[in-house]
Amino acid sequence: MSISILSLWWSMLFLVPTLPTEPVINTAVASDILWAPQKRLSWDDFAGEPASNNNHHALTSTNMEMKVKCENNQLKFKVDAVFNPKESWTRNRESHALLAHEQLHFDITELHARQLRKKLATLPNPCTRGAADLNKYANLAFEAWHKEEDLYDRESKHGLEKTIQQEWQASVQARLKALDAYK
Fold first, then answer.
1. Which helix (H) or strand (E) holds 156?
2. Where exactly are the structural domains of the chain?
3. pLDDT in tens, 86-102
4. What is the pTM of this model?
């Protein structure tokens, strides 16, 4: 399922097994970039072609991918924030401010991945809950992520409001640091 909101495209991959004991296959392709603190995006990572009907200067495609299974009544899970170069594009490879704005979209994806990791790690008796219950938590995480991404673009006017952009950067970095245990 893909959701297109203003200048940001999130390809939502939500993978939860029908039974908590079944593994889920990871759909990330080799060209995807996993979020890592030492890996900052560069314009070279934006390999897609700009959409002719989109007036924005850049588009970042990120995914939050989740795999869960139960082994020996223990919940095993992996939640990744992933950047998709083939679906991400820019018309302006010179702007450092625009690149910083797009990077923060990826950072927000990681922030919400950490929040979901924390929720999954702290669920009591997760393997007895069933897939529907785990889906509920993942759906809430995806909804919160999409709302925050939209709010970020609206408030920062896609990065054009420099003061607001800086406030967002500080807030996201502080929240990532607070969730360091879940990176």
1. helix 131-156
2. 2-182
3. 999 999 999 999 999 99
4. 0.82
